[in-house]
Amino acid sequence: MNDKARVSIPVPTAATMVASYARRRLLEQVRSVAFVIIYLVVFQTVILGVPPANATSIAGGIGMVVFGLAFFLEGLLLGIMPLGERVGVQLPGRGGILVIVLCGVLVGAGATFAEPAIAALRIAGENVKAWEAPLLYMLLERSPESLISAIGMGVGGAVALGMVRFYYGLSIKPFVLTIVPVLLILSVAWAMDSGLAAIVGLAWDSGAVTTGPVTVPLVLALGIGVSRAAGKSEGPSGGFGVIMLASALPILAVLVLGAIVRPAAPEPTTEERFFSSEHREEALLLFDSEKDLLRHAFRRGSEAGRRAYFDDEAAYLEAVESLGEDPGARRALLGEMPLSRWVAQRASDGERERMPRVLRAEEPDETLAAPPAPVPRVLAEESALAVQAIVPLTALLALVLVFYLRDRPRYVDEVVLGIALALVGMTLLTAGLRLGLEPLGDEVGRQLPRVFRGTEEDAERIVIEDFDEELVFESIGADGERRRHFYLRHEGQVEPVRFDPERFREHERVYEHVVRRPALFGPDLTALGVVLVFVFAFGLGYGSTLAEPALNAHGRTVEEVTVGTIKRKSVVRAVSIGVGIGIVVGVARILYDISTVWLLIPPYVALIPVTLLSDEDFAGIAWDSGGVTTGPVTVPLVLAMGLGIGGEVDVVHGFGVLAMASVYPILSVSIFGLIVRARQRRTMREAEREDDDG
Amino acid sequence: MAEHLRERRAVSRITCMVNRRLSPRITQRLGQLGVHTVFIETGRSVREVHTRRRFRLPGRVVRIEDSPVEVFRFTVPREAAERVMHALIVAAELDAPGHGTIYAQDLMEFSRAAPPALAAQNGPSSVEGGSEEAASGGVSEKAPVSDSEPAGGGERPRLRSRVSQVRRTRARTPTLLRDLTALTCILSMPESGEQISKIALELGTCVPIVTLGIGTGIRDRLGLLRITVPQDKEVVHLLVPSYDAVGITRLLIEEGRLNRPGRGFLYHTPVRAALIDTRLRVGRHGHAASMEQIIAAVDELKAGTAWRKRFPGLELEDADATHQLRRENREITVICSEGGAERLVSAAMEAGAGGATTARVRRVKATDAEGGIAARERSTIAVAADVCERVVGALLDVERGGAPCADRVQVLEAPAAFSHRS
After folding, report:
1. How many domains does chain A fold into?
2. Which of A97, A285, A538, B389 is buried deepest, with most CB atoms within 10 A?
3. Which residues of A208-222 are buried (b: 16+ CB within 10 A; e: fewer)?
4. Is B366 part of any domain?
5. Residue A582 lies in a domain
6. Within this chain, do residues A561 and A627 fall inside the same structural domain, yes or no?
7. pLDDT tier, A1 (very low <50, low <70, confident <90, very high otherwise)
8. Which pLDDT value is given to residue B202?
9. Which of A171, A616, A688 to mutate against chain B (most B CBs within 10 Å)?
10. Distance of CA A35 to CAs A546, A658, B4, B7, B49, Å?
């Protein structure tokens, strides 16, 4: 359109138009995040009875999430998806199948390196202990680049394979029916092997998290473009299914990588043996130096491991004491881990006694409410990640479009604006999540074990200086039993406290009072607590998925290509229900320490007949739904909860929850598809019936 | 100048809107008939569903339900149009309510290749599937069932369906209806397609078909500010009796509030012959025959729809006075490879067109003359008759990569059109 024809809009009218447009977009996002926020706050305050800490920071973060989602989604719809689709439409016309394959590999592999899922995987594996799962530790900590490369190859191969499928109009069903059984068989075989068992969860989670919020819409748009240009697929929904491949092939790649790397990793063993000097050579396969090994003993091991590391008692005691006295030694032994957290989580009672008194007194505050990171620093870090995730991929596609395909987007200015909005949106979204939603999720996740724990726990330690034993008085019960108490004035309240002589250090005149928090439902009601955890897990999965930007983009695409016969809201709801169920199963895995593979087999086996029964359109849409669920909103919240529970029940790692959150949406959307098809067929069936009657 | 697009041909455009389950039958039958270039658009049909209330409570619940449809469009020589329609009616059993709608419109087409000369090449027997049909001028009583089933369609008909089909084709030959008008409503507001569809369903005219499009016009002149104006359009296609077209238009304008800015517009185009889907409602009914069956029977008996007239005394001239319907318009349809519509529409607007609605379609049965990718764009432009020649000329002149940008341009009369500015 030439500039002569341009209509000039007065500034006040333009401002009104922009304001109305922004209001619509923001309200959409307020609605999408409202559920999960209200849910978390209500659960924390009403059920757990703990008010949110850092409320201002959390509220500000949530505001950023809303703006971030609105900007990011608009950026996807204006810039990234039209660009991907345009490239996809033009590729089959100008380039042959080889060019399409090459482009697919570059986009897929580039997406993995641009949006490295390894960060989420590392969080899930932050409790991995080198002696229990040496191969898992090796892949996550020792050679993460080989893990990223394997995932990148998987995603690259998947996108290329997806494009080939669209080019030739092949059905998704044969791919599902071959790849899924292979994955299941390999997973079972790996689960039987003590060395490989631990990486099954990692492999399936890799498949789940690898498809990020930029990759999914971009690949989806590219596939739809190729499919439409090739014109081989029947029906409107050609273009779906590539996300499924991008989730499945990385699983295969990680399983194969595990088998290749296994000979280089030591066998799982006990903690004492792992850290002992006889085992040192094998243990050092996982660490650069003995110093790193010792740091691992302190950061993730127990007293037994630390004692085993040192040949003599004196050296061990010296190392423990150096933690409290020497900041240099502390850094060498604990790295970034605060000493207070080490004391709270890793130190034995004996080791704790050797720590300075002040430190012990401060520990609850430091562990329970970490100060929020400064906003400018968070924004700077997140904007760098957003640039890394968005710019290389879009630049690659733009270069292909302009220089190879000799075409340009319909509205160049809109695409540029869209990419800028996506950058701003992603920065605000991820920064808002870090400042707002994640701390809220962390708090609830940490508190959550209380609802199923049968015993009381240490909640707070109060150090009473200048304690005078004369304040202690005796009480007597009906059975004549005598007990000693004193009155404590704390936060304006005076309460009687039972005197424990072991907590009184007479020579320092210090009494350490430990506030015990009772179990939420008492020792006999843990089953109810477990049910409550499941309810919470379902709501968290459901609510966080509603806000996922990639899922919203997926839903809009489905609605558009089906001309509204399948509504966006229905797809989003079906996926969210699936994620909710998946997370419940994932939490059950952690609570009861069930092997991931045994929980993955039933839904995937069920999916095979369901997929066979499904229409081609819905098979692609459903299998893609598995990949779009695990995005920037869901993953941190779910991991926080998984780790909170995992830490309580002492499982090796938090893997598996995300894999469950991927498989159940496939099932729920497939079932939704069957219901929709049955409803649509009714029209024709009734017509045939009436015709026969007539 | 793209001279080889300049030849003007009088053809019929057949539009066949069928439930997606029946699409393979249509595709296969068109292949057998020698129709090589077909453009398919995805859409949805809208019906009322009547169900009982839950827990056996008295009364009924009425809701709207969508089904996926595919809209096949292709051109054939005018003399072959009705025979091709009959062949497709048999193939997809379109005379059964709920299966779909088919209609033909006579228009002028500019294209690189002439439409397939079906009658000359294949003879009547190959079009209609048997020499007996040629004698009767309709559908064969022995229309082979296998012809109407796709080889790879994946849908094996049940015995009952076969029996019913044989019984139906023996019992009657579907009569094509005349005196119909195609009403095309292009709507801007989200979900307004459903609102207009509801009105059409309440009027009992036909099953509305909704497709999607992207609007180009004033929005493109706003610069980046255009992102604040939704570009998605819903296009509702209705077939209504010509006698009632004006009355229904008036109702749609009032109920759909099309007389307000930014809501959308509508126009009429003439229909030569049609068989319409009368399955407006799905659900239980307590009579020996449904209302749709009765309407279809009376249509057939009366050989038309004039008996349905419900707005007596309201003719086009009357409506002109109240709603300022624009007279003497043309609907110009231009089809091109995806990515080309922008230039074409821009050229059309410079030549005097107000805007266009562009839909994505896919082309099947590619021929060498129109090679390249299957993704196509179909832009529909409604213009006043006096600027039509100029706009068509501008469209034919647009080139892309040294070749004409448009695959084909079709021009059709549009006797009445309405927008809030008219």
Report:
1. 3
2. A538
3. bbbbbbbbbbbbbbb
4. no
5. yes
6. yes
7. very low
8. 84
9. A688
10. 8, 20, 61, 61, 32
The interface predicted TM-score of the complex, written ipTM, equals 0.76
CB nearest A560 (choices: B47, B212, B224): B212
Of B67, B372, B374, nearest to A683 by CB-CB distance is B67
Q: At residue A366, does pLDDT exceed 50?
A: no
**Which band of pLDDT confidence, cut at 50, 70 and 90, is reported for residue B43?**
very high
Domain end, chosen from A329, A352, A368, is at A368
B 295-354 → A contacts, CB under 8 A? 337-339, 342, 346, 349-350
Q: Tell me the per-residue pLDDT of B284-324, one tens digit each, with 9 for 90 and over.
A: 665 666 666 677 777 777 766 667 666 655 555 555 545 56
SS3 A424: helix
* DSSP labels, A481-517: -EEEEEEEEETTEEEEEE--GGGEETTTTEEEEEEEE
A227 → chain B, closest CA residue: B375
Residues A191 and A314 placed together within one structural domain of the fold: no
pLDDT per residue over B114-125, tens digit each? 777 664 444 444
B42·A562 Cβ contact <8 A: yes
> B52 — phi, psi (to 5°)?
-70, 155
Residues A240 and A289 in one domain: no
Count the helix, strand and coil residues of chain B and give each as a percent rounded to the nearest 5: 35, 35, 30
Q: Is residue B163 part of a domain?
A: yes
> Tokens in use for A227?
């499919």
Which stretch of A119-123, A575-579, A669-673 has the lowest confidence by average pLDDT? Answer: A119-123
How close, in Å, is residue A602 to chain B by CA atoms?
Answer: 29
pLDDT surpassing 60 at residue A161 = yes
Domain holding B54: CATH number? 3.30.70.120
Q: Specify the number of domains making up chain B.
A: 1
pLDDT digits (tens, 9 = 90+) for A253-262: 999 999 998 8
Any bridge partners for residue B40, and if so which?
B72, B362
Beta bridge partners of B238: B183
- Structure confidence by residue, pLDDT tens digits, A65-87: 889 989 998 998 899 889 998 88
- Give the type of residue at A652: V
Could you give the CA distance from residue A177 to residue A236 in angstroms, rounded to a whole number? 22
Please write down the long-range contacts of A1-8, taking CB distance under 8 Å and 24 or more positions apart.
Answer: A1/B220, A1/B221, A1/B346, A1/B349, A2/B346, A2/B350, A5/B221, A5/B349, A5/B350, A6/B221, A6/B222, A6/B223, A7/B218, A7/B221, A7/B222
Q: Name beta bridge partners: B381.
A: B332
User: What's the half-sphere exposure (Cβ side, CA atoms, 13 Å) at B171?
Assistant: 13
Domain that holds residue A280: 271-368
Question: Would you say residue B210 lies in a domain?
Answer: no
